[in-house]
Amino acid sequence: MINIINEKIEGLVAAPFSTLDDEGNLNLGVIDKYSKFLMKNGVRGVFVNGTSGEGYSFTVEERNATAERWVEVSPKNFKVLIQIGHTSLKVARKMAAHAQEIGAFGIGSMAPIFFKPSSVEELSDYIEKEASAAPNIPYYYYHIPRISGANFPMIELLSHVKEKIENFKGIKFSLPDLSDYQKCIEFEDGRFDILYCQDQTILSAMALGARGSIGSTYNYAAPLTLKIMEGFFKNNIEESSSLAYKSIKMVEVLENTGSYFAGAKELMRIAGIDLGTVRAPLSTIPNDKLALILPELDKIGIINYLSKK
How far apart are CA 97 and CA 95, in angstroms? Predict the structure, then answer.
């Protein structure tokens, strides 16, 4: 049994995008290159098959194959977490057990997205059933109510799970509720690992104690966030704040294309990592809009902070 509680994640964990070809078929061959690219740019791990990875658009077989490949190509010091959430608890448990079997660092899951828990008690009971399928690796709850619809205070969840789920490690906190976030950070003298996962506002969360984060922008702009973090630790808040604003504008540029994930994949392609298309209902971007991405990013002075080959 590993020491679930004491080891915490510090630095940046990327939420990798789906690895597809131009026809939308799974492309596992690019993952080795992808993993090396992320490590070169200062990323310390990946959260596989999450929102950025279009996990719910994949079959279970595709999700498991993707998880296996990320574990195969990643060195032991590169943390591979697998998102195992599903509308079927039985299926989620099987994917959790699979993640443990292949040697993943940990697992994470959002609340079920069809039939939803109506209370924190129901949510904690559901999490217990998921986590118990992989008892020897850490479990992170993926708090993303805009997708899951489960919008409960996370401080209440911690109170419910603290004694009943032995491998509950912490929360992937993907909601900009800094009040609840700080309560979770401080809970029982920092017992749990509360990863702040709103990339553009990481500077605000660092002032409250955030030291680890999972996010999509760390695929293509990890050097930018690392520079923001460096400025915070050196007490150069003015520079960090300026860079944080650039991060906000950067995401706006991609969102304004009409398809954030397709736009982000274009930045990855420019950096030398071709991740193919996106799956419906996500859409591709017309070539005239694709051509505007780099000029728009250049206007906000961010090109030099994008990840390099």
Answer: 5
260 classed as catalytic: no
Six token digits for residue 264 = 């982000």
3-state secondary structure of 240: helix
Pair of tokens at residue 55: 């996990």
Q: For residue 7, what pLDDT is reported?
A: 79
Contact 290, 297 (CB under 8 A): no
Q: Which two tokens stand for residue 279?
A: 């799956």
Burial zone of 249 (CB within 10 Å; 0-12 exposed, 13-18 middle, 19+ buried): middle
CB 69 within 8 A of CB 30: no
- From the list 24, 38, 14, 55, the residue with the least C-alpha distance to 272 is 38
| Ramachandran angles phi, psi of 140, nearest 5° | -115, 130
Single-letter residue type at 140: Y
Catalytic residue among 126, 139, 140, 142: 142
Q: Give CA angle at 23 (273, 81), nearest 5°.
A: 50
260-302 confidence digits (pLDDT tens): 999 999 999 999 999 999 999 999 999 999 999 999 999 999 9
Q: What is the pTM of this model?
A: 0.96
Closest residue by Cα to residue 109 from 215, 10, 128: 128
- Which pair of tokens denotes residue 184? 């979770």
Q: How far apart are CA 157 and CA 141, in angstroms?
A: 10
| Domain spans of the chain, in order of start | 11-221
Q: Note the CATH number of domain 11-221.
A: 3.20.20.70
140 beta partners: 108, 170
Q: Which residues of the chain have pLDDT under 70?
A: 1-6
Torsion sign (Cα): 276, 303, 201, 213? positive
Which of the residues 172, 227, 246, 265 is marked catalytic? 172
Phi-psi region of 87 (alpha: psi -120 to 50; beta: other; left: phi over 0): alpha
Helices 60-73 and 89-102, axial angle in degrees (round to 10) = 20
Q: What are phi and psi of 241, to 5 degrees?
A: -65, -40
Is 142 tagged catalytic? yes
